[in-house]
């Protein structure tokens, strides 16, 4: 049991403040930010944190308890209720849950990724040079690893030499060292809906974020230019290919416009390409259009297996020494064992084969979703791991999330992706990849479809 200095990120809505607090509580429980048994702030502390009266907080906690989110113990406090410690992503649900929340596909027994990883580990255990792979290595990776990284990024259209590659411990590590190295106190320009890991890294580094409007084609050029002028930020973090959470793919004309604006205002681009390998025949990355101003973040985890925490960061050649220093300051040395597997898989074609299998599986699951959710508007491309669904105005996305959770189905709340506090859209991100099988996915989507087809319940009810 732990005390938690929880402060809600309140959504802008017409609902009463107490209701907005409960919605924020439910979203943070669903996201795993709060765990079972966590002690919530006292009524007075939370009232001070959000600028509310004690009566408002009392009503919020009472409503949260009625909805089964918390429990109160006289003399002890208010605690997050009925959650399971050890469930990393969705502590609201028991082990029979259907997980439609996270991005990455799991390693399933018998699939290509699982078999390849089993064989790779067995091979490593019998190698004569295992001792050498058990020590430290160069901060930014060996020459062979950097060459493999350049080859892997080349599959997404990034032209890079080994001298431009820094090996990282995954895309999140790459994001953190880039922000710490390149961003200043003016902050970071981000899409108004963006990858939560980037927001977490910026928050950890105490960097302000400046949300920029997006549409179905990605960043809106006029909005980006205005944000550059008003914020004076010199770093842009964006995902032009397979955007998370909307799955949008920025067309080439828009990419050229974004590059032109960044050049005009002297803005450095951090391009997240972690999900780009899933998209065949995507437009050229920003790194190909403006290599002198773009740092490209690639990894293997999303396209192969999540356990392969190896990322490749392409930068202008003169920046690599600075990035190696940042890598040394954060992890000192990545895992030589994982980097060796990554290098072998890239060089012998295993990584590409697993990526192709992931694409096929994603396409099959998108077909299932299209059949079950027929008539329900949403956005997705054919090989995306997830879909983006706006909820009609007469329904509340958090209501749907809670109703689904009551039936052991986890969904991704838009709250997680909103760069501007209080401005999360009334929407869901529905993962198709994390369900343990296509049959399980069908069951989960069928529950969601029934919830969406049903008439809205009272604002604060949860289905039994």
Can you describe what's shown?
The protein folds into three domains: 17-80, Winged helix-like DNA-binding domain superfamily/Winged helix DNA-binding domain (Arc Repressor Mutant, subunit A, Orthogonal Bundle); 98-108 and 352-453, Aspartate Aminotransferase, domain 1 (Alpha-Beta Complex); 112-348, Type I PLP-dependent aspartate aminotransferase-like (Major domain) (Aspartate Aminotransferase, domain 2). With 464 residues, it is an alpha/beta fold. It is built from 15 helices and 15 strands. 40% of the residues lie in helices and 13% in strands. Keywords: Aminotransferase, DNA-binding, Pyridoxal phosphate, Transcription, Transcription regulation, Transferase. In the C-terminal section; belongs to the class-I pyridoxal-phosphate-dependent aminotransferase family. It comes from Polyangium fumosum. Residues 15-83 form the HTH gntR-type domain.
Looking at this protein, list some descriptive labels.
13% strand; alpha/beta; Aspartate Aminotransferase, domain 1; Aspartate Aminotransferase, domain 2; Arc Repressor Mutant, subunit A; seven-stranded mixed sheet; four-stranded mixed sheet
> What is the typical, i.e. mean, pLDDT?
87
Assign the CATH superfamily of the largest domain.
Type I PLP-dependent aspartate aminotransferase-like (Major domain)
Beta content comes to 5-15%
> Any idea what the CATH architecture of the largest domain is?
3-Layer(aba) Sandwich
Total individual domains? 3
Largest sheet: 7 strands, mixed
Strand order of the largest sheet: 4-12-11-10-9-5-6
Sketch the topology as an H/E string, one letter per element: HHHEEEHHEHEHEEEHEHEHEEHHHEHEEH
Poorly predicted runs are: 83-94, 457-464
CATH topology of the largest domain: Aspartate Aminotransferase, domain 2
Q: Count every helix, treating DSSP H or I runs of 4 or more residues as helices.
A: 15
Keywords: Aminotransferase, DNA-binding, Pyridoxal phosphate, Transcription, Transcription regulation, Transferase
Protein name: PLP-dependent aminotransferase family protein
GO molecular function: DNA binding; DNA-binding transcription factor activity; pyridoxal phosphate binding; transaminase activity
Domain HTH gntR-type: 15-83
